[in-house]
Hints:
Elements: H1 6-19, H2 27-36, H3 45-54, E1 61-62, E2 68-73, E3 78-84, E4 89-95, E5 100-106, E6 123-127, E7 133-138, E8 162-164, H4 170-175, E9 183-186, E10 191-193, E11 197-199, H5 207-218, E12 227-233, H6 241-250, E13 254-258, E14 282-286, H7 295-306, E15 311-315, E16 333-339, E17 350-352, H8 353-368, H9 396-404, H10 414-423, E18 430-432, E19 438-442, E20 453-458, E21 463-469, E22 475-480, E23 492-497, E24 500-506, H11 512-515, E25 526-530, H12 536-541, E26 549-551, E27 557-558, E28 563-565, H13 569-585, E29 593-598, H14 606-617, E30 624-627, E31 631-632, E32 652-657, H15 665-677, E33 682-686, E34 702-703, E35 706-707, E36 709-710, E37 719-721, H16 722-738
Helix pairs in contact: 2-5, 5-8, 9-13, 13-16
Amino acid sequence: MKQRARQGLWALLLVAFAASPLAAQTLTRDLQKLVQTPAVSGYEQQLSSVLLKRLAKWKPQQDELGDVIVRIGSGAPTRLLVTPIDEPGYVVSGITPDGYLRVQRLPQAPPNPVFDELASAQPVTVFTAAGRVVPGVVAGPSIHLEGFTPRTHHVLSPNLIYIDIGAHSAAEVHAAGVDLLDPIALDRQLFELGPSKLAGMSVEDRFGAAALLATLRHLDPAKVQGTLIVAFVTQQWTGGHGLERVLDRFHPDSMIFVGPAQARRFPPAEAESPTKKPGDGVLLVSPNPQAPLTGLPAELQQLASSHGIPIATDFSIPPQPPGYLPEPPLPASFAHLAIATAWPATPAAMIDSGDLAYLTELLELYSDGSFTAPVLTPIPPPRLTLPNRPTTAPPVPTVLKDLTESYGVSGNEVRVRETVKRLLPSWAKTETNAAGDLILRWHAPAGVREPGLVFDAHMDEIGFEVKSISPDGTLNVFWRGGGYLEYYLGHPTLVLTSRGVVPGVMELPAGWERRGLNVPFRRGETFRVDVGASSAAQARAMGVAVGDMMTIPKTYRSLLGHVATCRSMDDRVGDTALIEAAWALGPDFHRNVTFVFTTEEEIGLDGAAAFAADEAKEHREPRYVFAIDTFVTSDSPLESKRFADALLGHGFVVRAVDNSNIVPLPLAWRMIRLARANKIPVQYGVTGGGNDGAAYLRYGAIDVALGWPMRYSHSPAEVVDTRDVEGLARITVVAAHDWR
């Protein structure tokens, strides 16, 4: 029996990639497109269109349920290769008077205990009946209001899921084309981890389609014996109706189902769960993996072994979910092929590309007896780009997008600082202190004595730092800042190394598939991150080092009207306000005013403390500091309106009281009068969290804290109204001119 090492296959794949003219149609590129195209059960039309286009040369058909079917050859025997294409997701089940969407899960039973919880505060897309794509976010509790909001408000079921698309009323929702029954899917992309791992939402629901696309791409119809039916079926998660339709239509003599191995749920027992891991090769799965192989499974095992394809047995429930009616019988000659998935039905779902290549090889050998090495084109990691320096004052959304999409975990704000410098006008001569703060000063005319004013916004964001690298190549990371763990565990991550970005996934705790998450925040605790390395040496060779920062991917997105979302609006909105104000003040402004963009606010106001101490040493203590930071609002369907009650779109906020500072009431009213006199919408109130201004109090400054309303703090779904940001920039200019 021929034996072949995994390295031999990879050498073959590399040769095929170098010689292949099909660079745009590779196994990994197919998988990437399939993963990026949502297909909630019963709403697979968009993905079906992708498949129909890819399969055009075979003249595919589509049946009443949306199954995409290719028929090759004629006569007996009739062999069926079938793979499901749908995924778990949600549909709009209600619309609230204030413009939030309520949802129902499909399938109605959860695929695992953490499915809804990991959706909390995540970006989503709503697909309307008219073909419109409407971005939104899942509402999530704000950590700054922790202690004021019951823990039960965390998303643990669809009963607590609200989708925020930036609407303020049900009428605005309908005007956007959104209606009941529109499908909703979490945003996703495919990441390559290390030399062979691939991770992304629903990757386990798509690997079979990618393998069958590759098989059909290289198939020689002249070599097909009898009739070969290749079917991409719908509604597998909600009753297996697509599979039933194909079985009832074609009555195949033999069938290979290509799809994920699944545990028995509610809850699964250890003995009723898949045990293999990514990298274990092709899997022959069944409810009784210990039984001797006979029939088609035995033939496939022999075929794989004779060609050096690693193959093993594992557990899976049958591919026909129980329904209201008896299922059509499977052919007597039946096999279920799979590859192992880590963290299935989560945003961090992960497979091994080598396993996928082996699966494709086995399917090709089975289909026509030949094999063409699949091409595995590398997927480039996200690039960290810097915007060009503007020649005129850029609009608020442009500045906000450039800043929020720059990564700057506390203690590593260099990318954000460089972005700020590039967005400032060319005349702005900045300085950087030992703490990494970026400072821009204006000065009063010689001989004029007036109180100094400091406007302070921080550049950092929450994230994690690599504490150590385990012998198995996983990273141990700890918090830089703080947030709810369900927003990060079980999701893709980015390690920001000196050599670029290294994607990974943040592992879920042991037993998550039976007990759920239920992980309380414990300061100083470490968490595991898988970057696809198999050893500490391999992780270091990828560029990872102790002390590197890590966070999750993010993209600035516009919602309805003037509403926008991205992680790290806190405090890139404050930075945006200062940049816009600097353009407005110009180089000829003459007052003792300083703008400072500080570091490490999220871990203790460290940058502000260093700057305030430096100013005191130089006898430049400001009389007033205007700390510009988030006003975490209860303008959310999850929060109590007892406090933090400021509305998006109704103006900037005088942050009169928070956990670190109380603005003297006469000064709070002075700021409110100044805003109203200049026709700038203003709000005021009490919120949670602290602000940089507290670092200046010991040196005699008065902190008149300013902010803007923001929903879902320290989450991937922070939401703001850009009109409030514009108002914040305007009041900064007015206060710089007129505050005495």
